[in-house]
Specification:
Blueprint lengths: L3 H5 L8 E6 L2 E5 L5 E9 L2 E10 L4 H16 L4 H17 L2 H14 L4 H14 L13 H12 L4 H20 L29 H13 L4 H13 L3 H5 L6 E2 L4 E4 L10 E4 L2 H10 L23 H8 L11 H12 L4 H7 L7 H10 L1 H18 L11
Antiparallel strand pairs: 1-2, 2-3, 3-4, 5-6, 6-7
Helix pairs in contact: 4-5, 4-7, 5-7, 6-7, 8-16, 9-11, 14-16
Length: 400
């Protein structure tokens, strides 16, 4: 067996020569002075040689450890050379399969699946900016502790909701890696419950009937842009979300059947949603339908090719004297939900009208079909109530 002294003092000669250590391991000394560790073995009747690196970078003890590991592989019927090649390939694949590369794939997949533009922008910001410390890391090497440190750093700034959202988006990247055979585990899974709960901020809404009636009357007298006034009225009458109304297009509306079909891409739950239109909602549409020649029902003040901005409705409410602590555009949904529930309307029908999706797929499909007649009645009753609140006697009251 070789000694450290013998290996260190091996001098180069005119031709390469070997110093044997035993069990197949030897040191090959080249004329240039390079000393290489080699392991000779037989596999399937053929002689092979496996390199373990150069001395002194690989000391004698490490060379023997590698030799012993190679012998263990042989005992299991594995070729050490092929095993080493496979490990190199796996390392190269791991290095190329970084979190950042798979994150790009995840964003592209979401885009191809029709995710909303706002969602894509938010997720891109989360992955590109907040998750940037993970970008160049091989995805198989990222640990739960590493992700937790990143999330807690954001949490300490007070952005609890952002930390929770980031955990969810990071998890989606790992789930894509798992189903494409580039990772085996999702390090965000053990972190459930590790973060502080987000502080819920409810959108301001008027839920008292007389106060809402006053707002409805004020809105009818609002002398701002007609399309903007109509958009707020239509939003309230249909119990929809501001983004769903702002981006509404004429081809989505069947005036004869009094139905508005919202495509899945604009819905929060990414499922298509049909809205029955009350007489009042149809009257609002009639008033603005021919104001513009484009497809948008409620275009921007500046361009008929662009929809109303995100803040247009809230800005109108502010000009009418309602602060952000009193009422928001999104708050009309809460107004409708609270008042209709208090008046004893079927809660399931109200939830269906608000497009709150049941987690049970079968129940969701059943409710969508089962509650359509009740939703038609509910939306008409809600429109009549709004007229009643401001003192306008409705032509017909439908009792649910």
């Amino acid at each position: 067996m070789l000694t450290q002294f013998a290996v260190t003092n091996a001098k180069p000669k005119a031709k390469p020569y070997k110093l044997t250590d035993g069990l197949g391991l030897h040191l090959l000394t080249l004329p240039a002075g390079t000393k290489l560790w080699r392991f000779r073995y037989r596999f399937n009747g053929k002689e092979n040689t496996l390199g373990f690196g150069a001395f002194p970078e690989v000391p004698l003890a490490d060379a023997r450890t590698q030799r012993d590991e190679a012998r263990r592989l042989l005992a299991k019927g594995l070729d050490p050379s092929q095993h080493k090649k496979a490990e190199k390939i796996a390392a190269a694949v791991a290095a190329s399969n970084t979190f950042g590369a798979i994150a790009v794939e995840r964003l592209k997949k979401s885009e191809d699946e029709g995710a909303a533009l706002a969602t894509l922008k938010k997720n891109k910001w989360l992955l590109d900016d907040l998750a940037s410390p993970l970008a160049n890391r091989p995805i198989t090497e990222i640990t739960p502790a590493e992700v937790l440190m990143l999330l807690q750093k954001i949490e300490r700034t007070g952005r609890r909701e952002t930390a929770h959202r980031l955990r969810e988006v990071i998890g989606s990247v790992f789930r894509l890696a798992i189903v494409t055979m580039r990772a085996e585990t999702d390090p965000t899974a053990p972190l459930k419950g590790a973060l502080l709960r987000p502080q819920v901020t409810h959108r301001a809404a008027i839920t008292e009937e007389k106060a809402l009636g006053a707002l409805w009357a004020n809105l009818a007298e609002y002398d701002g842009w007609p399309t903007l006034r109509a958009a707020i009225q239509f939003l309230a009458l249909t119990m929809t979300r501001p983004i769903e109304t702002r981006l509404m297009r004429k081809p989505e509306v069947d005036l004869q059947k009094a139905v508005w079909s919202i495509p899945a891409g604009r819905m929060k739950m990414r499922l298509p949603h049909e809205v029955p239109l009350s007489r009042q909602a149809l009257a609002v549409l009639e008033g603005v339908w021919d104001l513009t020649g484009g497809e948008l029902v409620f275009p921007s003040i500046r361009s008929t090719l662009k929809p109303l901005s995100e803040n247009a409705m809230n800005s109108a409410l502010r000009r009418m004297g309602y602060t952000k602590a009193e009422m928001t555009a999104h708050g009309f949904r809460s107004s409708a939900s609270t008042i209709l529930n208090e008046r004893g309307f079927n809660p399931d029908v109200i939830e269906a009208a608000l497009a709150h999706q049941d987690e049970n797929e079968v129940r969701r499909a059943y409710n969508r079909a089962q509650f359509w007649p009740q939703r038609v009645e509910l939306l008409q009753a809600w429109a009549d109530l709004l007229d009643e609140f401001q003192g306008v006697k409705p032509r017909l009251r439908i009792v649910a």
